[in-house]
């Protein structure tokens, strides 16, 4: 595990699932973590308590990434507590399956506001908090941006947009010493995917995906968290603009 000293990370959507896994892995590597959540306060506080009990540093801060004032408050509280910012992980995301004959304007705006506008505003608002040494931004995309599963046209489009944003911002922010990369998970077990009946319940969908995955299983939040921790470490200092498909070989 790459170690780092005196670094501070903001992880959006970190009250459960992949975000919680990232927060805990970063904390284990020596990073102070701001655990952002939109509505699940108890989940965020549980993540913070687990980090603190393990000897790490963490706080929970509420905020909807699709609201500019919430994002401002998120970074203000982060820097007021820890005095600096080194890492931003854009993990907050939403999805709602729907075939073309069932999707609505509300579906579109809800998913794009969180999955596309949210990361843009988070990065924009973070810039005044990075010091001249810069830092690292990691966007959590999705394998759906390239695999295009049926019933996920809006979600796949939003994550394809995030891939493009990653490439553009890597070029824009390089002169500020800020690296920007994306990790795009494949089928990953989390509270949300389990509750939706996708993975972890021996569903037909899970069986099909496992059969198609060369490494023979669905992923876990820990799988994704380890990649994010590497990307935010000094060992990854020559990587920017990369979109890493973390899917066990599933394409």
TrEMBL record:
<dbReference type="Pfam" id="PF13561">
    <property type="entry name" value="adh_short_C2"/>
</dbReference>
<dbReference type="InterPro" id="IPR036291">
    <property type="entry name" value="NAD(P)-bd_dom_sf"/>
</dbReference>
<dbReference type="InterPro" id="IPR057326">
    <property type="entry name" value="KR_dom"/>
</dbReference>
<keyword id="KW-0560">Oxidoreductase</keyword>
<dbReference type="InterPro" id="IPR002347">
    <property type="entry name" value="SDR_fam"/>
</dbReference>
<protein>
    <submittedName>
        <fullName>3-oxoacyl-[acyl-carrier-protein] reductase FabG</fullName>
        <ecNumber>1.1.1.100</ecNumber>
    </submittedName>
</protein>
<dbReference type="InterPro" id="IPR020904">
    <property type="entry name" value="Sc_DH/Rdtase_CS"/>
</dbReference>
<dbReference type="GO" id="GO:0004316">
    <property type="term" value="F:3-oxoacyl-[acyl-carrier-protein] reductase (NADPH) activity"/>
</dbReference>
<feature type="domain" description="Ketoreductase">
    <location>
        <begin position="7"/>
        <end position="192"/>
    </location>
</feature>
<comment type="similarity">
    <text>Belongs to the short-chain dehydrogenases/reductases (SDR) family.</text>
</comment>
């Amino acid at each position: 595990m790459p170690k780092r000293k005196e670094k501070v990370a903001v992880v959006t959507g970190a009250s459960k699932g992949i975000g919680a896994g990232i927060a805990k892995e970063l904390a284990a590597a020596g990073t102070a973590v701001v655990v952002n959540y939109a509505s699940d306060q108890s989940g965020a506080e549980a993540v913070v308590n687990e980090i603190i009990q393990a000897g790490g540093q963490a706080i929970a801060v509420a905020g909807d990434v699709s609201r500019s004032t919430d994002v401002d408050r998120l970074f203000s509280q982060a820097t007021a507590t820890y005095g600096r910012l080194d890492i931003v992980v854009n993990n907050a995301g939403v999805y709602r399956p729907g075939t073309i004959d069932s999707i609505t304007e509300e579906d579109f705006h809800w998913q794009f506001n969180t999955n596309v506008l949210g990361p843009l505003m988070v990065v924009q608002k973070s810039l005044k908090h990075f010091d001249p040494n810069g830092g690292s931004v990691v966007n959590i995309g999705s394998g759906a941006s390239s695999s295009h599963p049926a019933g996920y046209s809006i979600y796949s489009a939003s994550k394809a947009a995030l891939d493009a944003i990653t490439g553009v911002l890597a070029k824009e922010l390089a002169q500020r010493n800020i690296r920007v990369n994306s990790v795009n998970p494949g089928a990953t077990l989390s509270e949300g995917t389990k509750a939706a009946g996708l993975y972890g319940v021996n569903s037909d969908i899970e069986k099909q995906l496992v059969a198609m995955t060369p490494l023979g299983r669905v992923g876990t939040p820990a799988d994704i968290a380890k990649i994010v921790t590497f990307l935010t470490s000094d060992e990854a200092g020559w990587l920017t603009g990369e979109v890493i498909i973390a899917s066990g070989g599933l394409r």
